[in-house]
Amino acid sequence: MDRESFARAAEALRKSDRERYLATLVLNGAQREAVTALYAFNADVASIRDRVSEPAPGEMRLQWWDDALTGTRHGNVRQNPLADALLDTIAAYRIPVGTLQRLLGARRFDLYDDPMPDLDSFEGYAGETSATLYQLAAMVLNGGDPVEPGDAAGHLGVAHALIGHMRAFGFHAARGQIFLPWSVFAANGVREGEIFSGTDSEGLQAAFGQLQELARGHLDKARSAVAALPGKVRPAFAPLTLLEAELGTLEMQGTNPFSPPPPLPDWRRILQLVWWTWRNR
């Protein structure tokens, strides 16, 4: 394993997905490196839309990653430190390539401006992206042996996606995207034009209240499911404590959905992660 590739993957994750980077700090040694490689891969894929001006180059980048996962010759691919670290992780922990390919397939949605149609579609998207990462992180902490986190990964993945997209709602609206289930907004009389123009309304507030309720329900179910898992895999689910704090802040703010409250400082998030991990081992 090339330690330089893992170090560069950690640095890329620190810059692009601060919350997941902080979550890796409660892990140990080689397991931290492996989970970091998975998270850095996801962060790179999730940020493709930010780096392209139209879908076609984004599709090409997704195809590059697919080829990197399935190709038999990895010479040129290995020159990319994120791919190098990911391929070593796949080999060391027997990560199923098909699972990562499904994550790539789900991320195609990011490249286009079609709104997320309904809750079922959103949960499917969250299952192939956020929930997948929890499932694979648990597998790494289980030494590469299959583990069935089931409800824990599923519920926490949906909660993570809901909270993350509520926080990023204004950012995505400004560039013409609606990641949260459109059916919830439509049921409350919200129009696309109001979202894209940054117009707050009673309907939008009501929709956000319902989405927060959904996220709370998934967090509650995730907490119970995580408690039933073996202690050695529970640190993979440490972001639960950060998500609970973030949702609490969103619920209390009661203001413009386009302007989320600032995140907690890193030192507080690290303390929360360490305390939760210590209590749940």
Could you characterize what this model shows?
This protein is mainly α and 281 residues long. It has two domains: 112 residues, no CATH class; 169 residues, Farnesyl Diphosphate Synthase, CATH 1.10.600. The protein has 15 helices and no strands. It is globular and about 50 Å long. The model has no long low-confidence stretch (mean pLDDT 93).
Largest sheet: none
Q: Residue ranges: pLDDT <50 for 5 or more in a row?
A: none
Return Rg in Å: 19 Å
Strand content: under 5%
CATH superfamily of the largest domain: Farnesyl Diphosphate Synthase
The CATH architecture assignment of the largest domain turns out to be Orthogonal Bundle
What count of structural domains? Answer: 2
The ordered string of helix (H) and strand (E) elements is HHHHHHHHHHHHHHH
How confident overall, as mean pLDDT?
93
- Give the helix tally: 15
Q: Which fold does the CATH topology of the largest domain refer to?
A: Farnesyl Diphosphate Synthase
Total beta strands: 0
Structural class: mainly alpha
Percent of residues in helical segments? Answer: 55-70%
How far apart the termini lie comes to 28 Å
**What top-tier CATH class of the largest domain fits best?**
Mainly Alpha
Summarize the entry for a quick read:
The protein has 281 residues and is an all-alpha fold.
